[in-house]
Amino acid sequence: MPADPLSRVFSALADPTRRDMVARLAVADATVNELAAPYDVTLQAVSKHLKVLEEAGLVTRGREAQRRPVHLEAEVFDLMTKWIDRYRREAEERYRRLDGVLRAMPDDTEASPTRREGARP
Amino acid sequence: MPADPLSRVFSALADPTRRDMVARLAVADATVNELAAPYDVTLQAVSKHLKVLEEAGLVTRGREAQRRPVHLEAEVFDLMTKWIDRYRREAEERYRRLDGVLRAMPDDTEASPTRREGARP
DNA sequence: ATCCTGTTCAACCAATAGGTTGAATACAGG
DNA sequence: CCTGTATTCAACCTATTGGTTGAACAGGAT
Question: What fold characterizes domain B5-74?
Answer without folding.
Answer: Arc Repressor Mutant, subunit A (1.10.10)
